[in-house]
Amino acid sequence: MDSIVIHGGNRLNGSIPVSGAKNSAIKLMAASILTDQPLLLTNMPRLADTRFLGQLLRQFGVEVTERDGADGQETLFHAPELTSTFAPYDLVRQMRASFNVLGPLLARTGHAKVSLPGGCTIGARPVDLHLQALTAMGAAIELEEGYVSATAPKGLRGAEIEFPFVSVGATEHALLAAVLANGTTVLKRAAREPEIGDLARCLIAMGAKIEGLDTDVLTITGVSSLSGATWSVIPDRIEMGSYALAAAMAGGEVRLTKGRADLITALTDRMVEAGVEIEPTDDGLIVRRDPTQRLKAVDATTEIYPGFATDLQAQFMALMTTAEGESVIQENIFENRFMHAPELARLGADITVHAGQAVVRGVEGLKGAPVMATDLRASMSLVIAGLVAEGETTVGRVYHLDRGFERMEEKLGACGADVRRIKGEDDEH
Ligand SMILES: CC(=O)N[C@H]1[C@@H](OP(=O)(O)OP(=O)(O)OC[C@H]2O[C@@H](n3ccc(=O)[nH]c3=O)[C@H](O)[C@@H]2O)O[C@H](CO)[C@@H](O)[C@@H]1O
Ligand SMILES: C=C(OP(=O)(O)O)C(=O)O
Questions:
Q1: Confidence at residue 70, expressed as pLDDT on a 0 to 100 scale
Q2: Quick one: DSSP state of residue 296?
Q3: How far apart are CA 410 and CA 53, in angstroms?
Q4: 40-79: string of b/e by CB count within 10 Å (b at 16+)?
Q5: Which pLDDT tens digit goes with each residue over 164-185?
């Protein structure tokens, strides 16, 4: 099992290119199932999650070709014919979003059998809203031995679906199914995360009819077939926010390029309040911080977009561990997303967690220690803390981090961080 070793104390100076968004790329990849024409995704991140999903798509007969293009990394998906509509547990358990192949398989072929999903263990994470949406569109669904079997022999039909609360995955899943349904689907209380807009715009480029982009009501008029398209994956706002926080933690000046500052204003507003200098640029932002000046503690509450992203909560908590004063961090999206708190405490952080709230009392400094990554974003919070911890911090279970951060050691290392990967034996996780 690989681990990451960090020697804290170096300032960060330089430039970090932001990759394409994992949480968009994996939904765009699922869209390739909907057409027999080639779908070319550019600005593609190369991550464990995109690799897993690529394997799953190949299992259905989708040709997946990774290559370097004019715009950097790209992947061509082509499914002239689907040879299977079965998604086995071993591939789906690795990442939650692989469950989103169910709707497209059903929409294209009228049947699919997909394992219930895995993903980060940050809460119970049921898929009831996904299944309710597909049922409303006419799918017959059975749950058996950990698998969802769905059929819609006459095709899916448009429906009016009002989600009881906002779900990113269920909105995307319903959207992916509705584009080929017979008639009009209206999704109310739809999620508005930028990755949904990215998916909708790509589907439109493939010939789908979708109105209400970036609002909480999406109206989709089904079409009988979709064509191929070339689509550039939106920048990863979570990766961008994470490196902004890393730079703020370590101090120095880092320019984030190939990103979009407008997607993370809920984070950067709080960083500015804490005393970090943020300068938006045409393709990202510059983060400046004088490490001899202590930051001020600031509160944060996770919310649906455009609120403060739950996927940045752990990394923000890391920044607050050494800020002056007390920061109250409220997690409203997932019921079990503070597993990084005891790990940060190993480095000397003073954090009390009670139900959905963490109180972080800033300490003067952290000390390196062995810590364990518990989930994807938690892993990054430990790396961020390690950047200032005195001595050596070793982060174990790095496979979590590899799901969502591309070439992390290289990107931070290029700015002067002392971050190395120690190769371990491959393990089954
Ligand atoms: C691959 C991907 O894009 N993952 C993101 C996606 O996850 P994901 O799509 O899983 O998140 P959701 O927005 O669906 O989850 C929000 C809440 O709804 C609950 N829920 C969801 C579906 C359902 O059928 N029933 C139900 O109860 C979940 O348990 C959670 O408490 O959005 C989250 C919220 O921004 C992010 O943290 C994840 O990084
Ligand atoms: C929670 C995440 O991923 P997943 O939904 O795939 O578990 C994430 O990207 O932070």
A1: 84
A2: B
A3: 24
A4: bbbbbbebbbbbbbbebbbbbebebeeeeeeeebbbbbbb
A5: 999 999 999 999 999 999 999 9
Let me know if residue 429 belongs to a domain: no
Tell me the C-alpha distance between 16 and 49, whole Å: 21
Q: Which of 162, 233, 333 has most ligand 1 atoms within 8 Å of its beta carbon, as the pocket-test mutant? A: 333
| CATH code, 353 | 3.65.10.10
- Structural domain contains residue 428: no
Where do runs of H (alpha helix) occur along 4-117? 22-31, 48-59, 89-92, 102-109
Region 327-337: mean pLDDT is 96
| Phi, psi of 50, deg, nearest 5 | -70, -30
Query: Ligand 1 — pocket residues by CB below 6 A?
Result: 23, 96-97, 123-130, 167-170, 193, 310-311, 333-334
Number of residues in the chain: 429
Please tell me whether residues 133 and 257 are part of one structural domain: no
Which atom of ligand 2 has the smallest separation from the CA of 95?
6
Q: Tokens 């929409």: give the residue.
A: 107
Query: Strand 392-396 and strand 284-289: pairing?
Result: unpaired
Strand order in the sheet with 357-361: 300-301, 326-330, 357-361, 350-354
Q: Answer whether 0.90 is exceeded by the pTM.
A: yes
